[in-house]
Design brief:
This protein is of the alpha+beta class. The protein is built from 3 helices and 5 strands; from the N terminus they run H-E-E-H-H-E-E-E. It is extended.
């Protein structure tokens, strides 16, 4: 199969569904996330903002705080979350977006 036959940009923009596995048993759960990919405009734009912010700090000779970069990375992943289903808190369904 030719790699050029894969249209990753469509899936990246519109999201792909992932079933969360139980971290102890690795069995599928009822929780499903829809995530966009690294080729989507949301991801690329957010990544550019983060990179520019980090580079500006370096130019001004300011130290980059690791906990801040970790938060930026988490925000980037959250920004790429397009939806979810199956998440409960007690008996209550948690709807997307929170």
């Amino acid at each position: 199969m030719d790699l050029n036959d894969f249209d990753t940009s469509y899936a990246s923009e519109n999201g792909v569904k992932f079933t969360l596995l139980n971290p102890k048993t690795y069995e599928p759960t009822d929780i499903i996330f829809t995530l966009s990919g690294m080729d989507c405009s949301k991801y690329r734009n957010q990544k550019k903002l983060i990179t520019n912010k980090r580079m500006n700090k370096m130019v001004r000779k300011k130290e980059v705080d690791v906990s801040e970069t970790e938060k930026e990375d988490i925000d980037l992943l959250a920004n790429c979350t397009l939806g979810w289903s199956g998440i409960l808190e007690g008996e209550k369904q948690i709807k997307f977006p929170v």
